[in-house]
Every structure is written in C-alpha cells, then in structure tokens.
Amino acid sequence: MMMDDLKGKVCVTGAAGFVASWLVKRLLLSGYHVVGTVRDPDDEKKVGHLKRLEGARERLELVRAELMVPGSFDAPITGCDGVFHTASPVIGLPKSDPKAEILQPAIDGTLNVLRSCKKNPSLRRVVLTSSSSTVRARDDFDSALPLNESSWSSEELCHKLNLWYALSKTLAERAAWKFCEDNKIDLVTLLPSFVIGPSLPPLLCSTASDVLGFLRGETEKFQWHGRMGYVHIDDVALSHILLYENENAKGRYLCSSTVLDNHQLAAILSARYPTLPIPKRFVKLDRPHYELDTSKLKGLGMQFRSIQEMFDDCVESLTAQGHLPLIASSLKPTS
Ligand SMILES: NC(=O)c1ccc[n+]([C@@H]2O[C@H](COP(=O)([O-])OP(=O)(O)OC[C@H]3O[C@@H](n4cnc5c(N)ncnc54)[C@H](OP(=O)(O)O)[C@@H]3O)[C@@H](O)[C@H]2O)c1
C-alpha cells in the first residue's frame, strides 16, 4: 500500500503562512498527502520552505488560490477527505479600509472555501482555524469564571475599539457555522491563543514580528495585548490534526497553554534571557481579567507545552535565523 493511501488527502488553505506551514510539516510527517493553497506558487521566497519539508517531494502539491476569487478553491479541494482552512488576513491595523483588507477576505473568503467543500463528494470534515479572539473580546462576563467555548466576542465592542482582526475572526467563524449547518458539512473549529514558536517561513508574519520586537525591547504591541493566552506552534498543529482525526470532536475548541498579563510574561522572559532587553514597564489597561478554560481539548488528550518551552524554541529559532544575537539562546538555562 502507498503511504498516500494510509492517511488520505487533505487540503490546507494559506499553506505558506506561519501556523499553516507547521501544520503542513506535521501532516506530512503523519503520512498525509497535502494539497496546499498559496497565492503565488512560483514565489520561492514564500514557498521554498514548504518544498524542503520531509515528505514534500512525494506528498505535497502547491496550488494557486485566492480567498476573494469565487471558485478558486474548487480544484485544490476536489478529491480531498479533509480541509484545514487557515488562510485569513492577520493584520494588526489596516492601512485604510478594514472591510476590504480584513473583513471581506476573512468572512467571504471562508464562505468561498466552504462552497468548494460543499461541491466535493469525498469531504469528511473541515477544521477551521479560528482564534481565541472570537471568545475574549467582550467586557460583560464574570471574571471569576474562566471563558470557555460557549463565549462569543462582542461585535459591538469590536466595532467600538476598532478590533478588526477579532471582528473578522468572530464573523467568519459564525458564518462558517451557519453555512455548515445549512449544508450538512462536518465542521470543527480550533481557537488558538497567541501562537509562539519557530517560524518556518523566513519572512516573519505579523505576530512573529511582534514577538521579535518584544524580545528586542519594544513595548507597543504587548502593551496593547495587556493580558493574553499563549500556545506553542507545534501544539496548534497537533491540535488541528487531533480534531480532524478524532471522530468524537465536535464544535469549538480553545487551544491555549497559559494566560498571562504582559508584565508577568516580561518577568518570566527577562529572568530566562537576561541578555535580551525585554521591556519591564507597562501601563495597566482597564480591561477585565480572564482565564481560558481549555478542558474540552485536554479531554481529547491534548497536553500543552509551557511558556518556557515555547519561548525557548522561539528564541532559539530567531537566533538561528539571525534576528537575535547569538548570546540570547546560548545563555538559556537548561531546565
Ligand atoms: N498567529 C497567531 O497567533 C494566531 C492565533 C490564533 C489564530 N490564528 C489564525 O491562524 C491562521 C494563520 O495565521 P498566521 O499567524 O499563520 O498568519 P500568516 O502567516 O499571515 O498566515 C495567513 C495566511 O493567510 C493567507 N491569506 C491572507 N489573505 C489571503 C487571501 N486574500 N487569499 C489567499 N490567502 C490569503 C496568507 O497568504 P500569503 O502567504 O500569500 O500572504 C497566509 O498564508 C489565521 O486564520 C489566523 O487568524 C493565528
């Protein structure tokens, strides 16, 4: 039997992205045949790292697709048993038009992908990469109780505070649930918190650049985060595959290791990497305290790596890529 026959064929949208590249890596290592969609398969700077993954030569196809082009995903999705829809704009601040830059590609793009899923008779399940920002952007909850998957971010608050990314993910996930219920598509959604770890793409995505900035002493982005959940990129990839493979997976799944205030994160990291100029002072924001309840995903067997492990891997990789001085990771404690 060929390796392809063992695990079947799956599509990953936005395959060259930070999260998706690691998912593709894990899917190939597990024996899947992967069809990865990218906006430009000829752009070696964007896709070269995917072609070099173990198993890529035998089991990775890269196909052009664009979220805003109707029918663009028909060809890559046809014949796949599973679809991992990760493509979505991850932009902190839009240049001029949040609707065109963030909201439409996220929401209309998700529906575009799902329309292609509907046309595919061999489809078994869709795993949508949503975000913990679809749960926590609200100010009307009891801080004593951890937020779980029953919570949805407030569209009103997102509008009021210009939280375009959170709004895009919230509306995209809601639209996906409605479309899949109407069309009897088996959908499961994964809601990662802030993803930390090595970047396979050599060009750092927006969140990975924010982390690099923080490790180099910039306060701005993490000041705005205030309190945030963090999760290791490999745990995010493994969680996607767990939700795809586990017959009992149903509904939404928060995916997060630890929630920390920015000053708590800064204290852990400055003690661990004393040579890095990690910011020390943050203005306390008037936002509600929250925890995330991840017992649903843990109930399927997922175990999350610690803050220390995710940042060790991240710092090591940023150092190897030349973004941080060598001394940062060589002075890292061994425990
Ligand atoms: N990073 C995090 O902390 C985090 C946390 C929770 C959830 N997520 C979710 O994880 C997914 C991936 O995010 P990421 O952090 O890996 O960011 P990323 O590296 O910027 O990946 C985003 C991907 O979406 C693709 N994309 C954007 N607009 C597109 C369009 N109009 N047509 C086709 N493809 C388009 C990008 O393609 P190009 O490569 O061509 O630009 C890229 O591959 C997103 O759904 C995001 O919401 C991320």
Can you tag this structure with a few keywords?
335 residues, alpha/beta, Rossmann fold, seven-stranded parallel sheet, three-stranded mixed sheet, 16 helices, 10 strands, globular, binds NADP nicotinamide-adenine-dinucleotide phosphate
Report on this structure.
Its EC number is 1.1.1.219, 1.1.1.234. With 335 residues, the chain is of the alpha/beta class. The protein has a single domain, classed as 3-Layer(aba) Sandwich (Rossmann fold), CATH 3.40.50. The site of NADP nicotinamide-adenine-dinucleotide phosphate has 27 residues, from helix 2, helix 6 and strand 7.
What do we call the CATH homologous superfamily?
NAD(P)-binding Rossmann-like Domain
| Count of the domains | 1
Query: How far apart, in Å, are the first and last alpha carbons?
Result: 43 Å
CATH architectural category: 3-Layer(aba) Sandwich
**Overall pLDDT level:** 94
Secondary structure tally: strands? 10
Function: Bifunctional enzyme involved in flavonoid metabolism.
Catalytic activity: a (2R,3S,4S)-leucoanthocyanidin + NADP(+) = a (2R,3R)-dihydroflavonol + NADPH + H(+); (2S)-flavan-4-ol + NADP(+) = (2S)-flavanone + NADPH + H(+)
InterPro entries: Epimerase_deHydtase, NAD(P)-bd_dom_sf, NAD(P)_dehydrat-like
Enzyme class: oxidoreductase
